[in-house]
Amino acid sequence: MNTVAKKSLGQHWLDDKQTLSAICELADIKKAEKVLEIGPGHGSLTEMLLQSGAKVTAVELDKELAKNLIAKNFENLRVINQDILEFDLTSLPQGYKVVANIPYYLTSNLIRNLSESTNPPASITLLVQKEVAQRICAKPGGMSVLSVSAQVYHDCTLGLIVPAEKFIPPPKVDSQVVHMARKLKPLVDNQSKKQFFHVVKAGFAGRRKTLPNSLSAGLHLPKEEVAEILRRVNIDTNTRAQQLSIDDWLKLNKYLTR
Q: Helix, strand or coil for residue 189?
């Protein structure tokens, strides 16, 4: 690994075979499956995916890294030098899987792009900051906009914890693998997703505020009206956004958008 990691791109190389194998195992890669890898770097995970029999499209923002990976001339590998947030997901075959060790700053935007695409992946397996992985899989009491966004579209499972010292250079925190299997039918359809997430974001805008306060401010509704709707759907008016389940948000959204 002779290319210096670029701090601006959040690059941390991982070459630990046991960890890479655990990522591929959780992703359940089968022979001839189509895989989108994001930020392949030096290609350590790429090689493992190819050994599993996958046909890999690797999208790498760093021009030098993309060039080096192309030069390796791997069979069943297509390398694209592009920002993943600008990549056309509809160019991939339906049922593809995403597997990646991604920069921490990219997580939220990437999950939203993948989830809301007209050609979403069958599953997403990511190595991310441990705290972020646990937020993705959070239960009521520890929910966030990220966990709601992920769980509306996916069944989420935590995998292996990867200590910081296994990376070059080591990040400041440990990482964890998270697996997100696409639901057969997302809990929010394309027509209502914009309004649904408008309500969710309003609820989380003031994390320390109770829902009547945060929703009233975010949705420009009288506090008494919000409190009445909460009572109607059996949600305590002293509740805060992080305490709600996905079902609670769905019920609340239904009443708030009538």
A: coil
> Among the residues of 172-222, which ranges form H helices?
193-204, 211-219
List per-residue pLDDT tens for the chain, 258 residues long. Answer: 444 444 444 456 687 889 999 999 999 999 999 999 999 988 999 999 999 999 999 999 999 999 999 999 999 999 999 999 999 999 999 999 999 988 778 889 999 999 999 999 999 999 999 999 999 999 999 999 999 999 999 999 999 999 999 988 887 899 999 999 999 999 998 889 999 999 999 999 987 899 999 999 999 999 999 999 999 999 999 999 999 999 999 999 999 876
> 79-84, long-range: CB within 8 Å, 24+ apart, which pairs?
79/40, 84/38, 84/39, 84/59, 84/110, 84/113
- Entry pTM: 0.91
Q: State both tokens at 89.
A: 């997901």
Tokens of 121: 């992946």
Task: Give CATH for domain 193-256.
Answer: 1.10.8.100
| CA 72 to chain CA mean position, Å | 29
Which sign, positive or negative, has the C-alpha torsion 130, 131, 133, 138? positive
Which stretches of the chain are DSSP H helices?
17-27, 44-51, 63-71, 107-116, 130-136, 145-153, 193-204, 211-219, 223-232, 246-256
Does the domain at 7-182 match CATH 3.40.50.150? Answer given as yes
Q: How do the domains of the chain map onto residue ranges? A: 7-182, 193-256
The 3-state DSSP class for residue 90 equals helix
Q: Which residues pair with 77 in a beta bridge?
A: 56
